[in-house]
Write a structure and sequence with these properties.
elongated; about 5% helix; mainly beta; DUF4270; DUF4270 family protein; 2 domains; 11-stranded antiparallel sheet; single chain
């Protein structure tokens, strides 16, 4: 027997009925139980943007720029404070060269085959966190418009372990002389003169790369009495990981999302090509709305929800393994203003996540399942539950630019956004 409640926009298009017993209490004993499989409850998706993403002390620093087909030009600049424990150089030492050493962490996004351009600037303000103690993807500091150096390179994040970029000698000679002449003897003196560096990608770059915070500026020098070529001396100024972070931005003009300048704004999937989106780093997330859950109350007889899962499919015709990463989605409960209320949990008290349950190259399908049984029960009992929604994010939100595009509820039967409910009805006389 199928139940159709169209007047409450709860469409039960696919139902099944079984006689069964469930260990859920004495009410089930000797009752005539029907189990309904409901797969067409109304569910809607949209895209919104968090005002900022906390990026303090991340395990990866992002650097680069590329044109995203959905979100426009996406760029990441590294701000870093340099540090060392010693500031001494032999009085006979002679400056040779200076290099920027960036250690790869194997992460990259988009095309790494093209030549990239990077400009290095000195920061003109103290690099320090905001009043709450954090750096955010929106945090910026003024830097000198004149560059220390401009370098070009072809990235090899998989084949090589680090990127060595020769900087202009003038900057290296300046640092070398200040230390050798004892104008700078400690970190405080150094930071009063050299507050930090901004590594700024060119707007024509094609990739964003991940680097380890354990990167540095290295000064090479020689000593007059050393004649062997292998006797190469160096002095490192390392990145201070507590004061190094990436600033991420995107130019969304002429895209679906040029209006996303406030966290309370949502762009419905129907207004963005039939898809909702995630873009990590920029704080762009998919919002899931379940507007008519109360319709379950109109099923005849006493009933209970036994299970519920949200199914959301990736648009693999657009995405590829080089343009998104991960087999899990982070899930949060948010309010009507898209403020996070807390993590999504399951009935076992574990943080719930979206996991891949269908993955087929042949049928171009990657589908994530999110357990929402506990959420729906909370939503129906809390006085403010009508204003609860779900937010889906990339787990690496603070240190990647991974992008996902998800089918909305207007897609084909196998790919559309949907909720699967297992609902049991008993004592129906």
């Amino acid at each position: 027997m199928c139940v159709l409640l169209s007047s409450f926009m709860l469409l039960l298009g696919s139902c099944s009925q079984d006689d069964a017993s469930f260990p859920v209490g004495e009410d089930w004993v000797d009752s005539d139980t029907r189990v309904l499989y409901i797969d067409t409850m109304t569910v809607e998706s949209s895209t919104f943007k968090f005002d900022s993403v906390q990026v303090s002390s991340t395990s990866r620093l992002l650097l680069g720029s590329y044109v995203d087909p959905i979100f426009g030009r996406t760029s990441s600049t590294i701000y870093t404070q340099l540090a060392n424990s010693t500031y001494t150089l032999d009085s006979d030492a002679v400056f040779d060269s200076i290099v920027l050493i960036l250690n790869y962490d194997d992460y990259f996004y988009n095309d790494t085959t093209q030549v990239q351009t990077l400009r290095i600037h000195e920061v003109l303000q103290d690099i320090k966190p905001t009043d709450d103690g954090y750096f955010y993807n929106t945090t910026t500091f003024k830097y000198d418009e004149n560059t220390i150096s401009e370098v070009t390179y072809t990235p090899r994040p998989i084949r090589e372990d680090s990127l060595h970029l020769r900087l202009e000698d003038a900057y290296g000679q300046l640092l070398f002389d200040e230390i050798q002449d004892n104008d700078i003897n400690n970190s405080d003196e150094f930071l009063r003169t050299h507050r930090g560096l901004a590594l700024v990608p060119d707007e024509n770059n094609t990739t964003i790369l991940g680097f380890l915070p354990a990167s540095s500026i290295r000064i090479y020098y020689s000593l007059p009495n050393e004649v062997e070529e292998e006797d190469e001396n160096s002095f490192d100024m390392t990145f201070n990981s507590s004061y190094s972070y990436h600033n991420l931005s995107s130019d969304r003009d002429t895209t679906y999302f040029e209006s996303l300048d406030d966290q309370e704004i949502n762009v419905d999937a129907e207004d963005s090509g039939g898809f909702s989106y995630i873009q990590a780093g920029l704080g762009i997330a998919s919002r899931i709305s379940i507007p008519h859950l109360a319709g379950l109350d109109y099923i005849e007889g006493s009933g209970t929800l036994l299970g519920a899962n949200l199914l959301i499919s990736l648009n693999t015709k657009v995405e590829s393994t080089s343009l998104y990463a991960g087999s899990n989605l982070s899930c949060y409960i948010i309010d009507q203003k898209n403020q996070i209320l807390g993590n999504l949990y399951d009935y076992e008290g574990n943080e719930a996540s979206g996991t891949v349950v269908a993955n087929s190259d042949e049928f171009s399908q990657t589908t994530f399942s999110v357990p929402i049984h506990y959420f729906l029960d909370q939503k129906t009992t809390d006085s403010n539950g009508d204003n609860w929604y779900l937010a889906l994010l990339d787990p690496a939100m603070s240190e990647s630019v991974n992008r996902y595009s998800f089918y909305g509820n207007k897609a084909s039967e196998t790919l559309k956004l949907q909720i699967i409910l297992i609902y049991a009805v008993y004592d129906n006389e």
